[in-house]
Model the fold of this input.
Amino acid sequence: MSVSNGELWAEDSGGDGLSLVLLHPGVGDSTIWDPVLPALTARHRVIRYDARGFGRSPAPTAAYSPAGDLAAVLDHFGLARAVLVGSSMGGATSISLALEAPDRVAGLALFVPGVTGFDGLLPSGFYEEVGRLATVGDMEGVVRLGLGLWGRAGGGTPEADPVAAAQLRGVLPAWFSSVGHQEADAPAFDRLGEVTSPALLALGELDQPEVVRCNEEMADRIPRCRLIRLATSDHYPTLREPEAVVQLIEELYADAMSTGTADGSGGPRTT
Done:
């Protein structure tokens, strides 16, 4: 599908009623939803897409906004409103759109989410170490570094957790291709009190401490947000506790349906 200054890969399961839109983390692409997708598409219209440079989407060549791309996805599939399911980076984008265009967001299911305008989500020196490893061509070192932070529930190494390692390995090019092209969405952390849609936030108890602390503060700031602690999850909840993720999405969806109206219909499409 076409977006401003570029292209995105997106997939629509088809169906009627209020749709779910799945937004992947920066440590994986849209296939991160594979463990939960069959259960969700059995009951709902589900749309997922790869952010620019991730998965099946081409690398960016010009300026773009993550929230702007999300709005373009909704427009492309004819969705006036949707329930947004965002993990990590995808959670930050979901929140940004909920603040920019609250009438388009029927609900927010946030899993280990990031948020713009919050400093300290990564340990000191992380970017410098990634840069050093990349400079010497040690991309497996970057994978090992990342799993040590975000993949503790799976053992924290590529050898112990090949599935998470493959996810992280596959998105490293996107980390670098977005530099100079991605325009940061407006700071959202200090505006979380303006979120109006039903929301839940699920943190991973085994995630890095900086993310856990941020997620706790986010849930406290979002009005009437339900905070859930996933005891055996790190930064990959769909890989660690897929059944719990599905159940939480269903509960949030029910809340959204009870407070709004459904929009959108159509057959399946992949673009």
Remarks:
- The longest helix spans residues 242-259.
- The longest strand covers residues 105-111.
- The two ends are 5 Å apart (CA to CA).
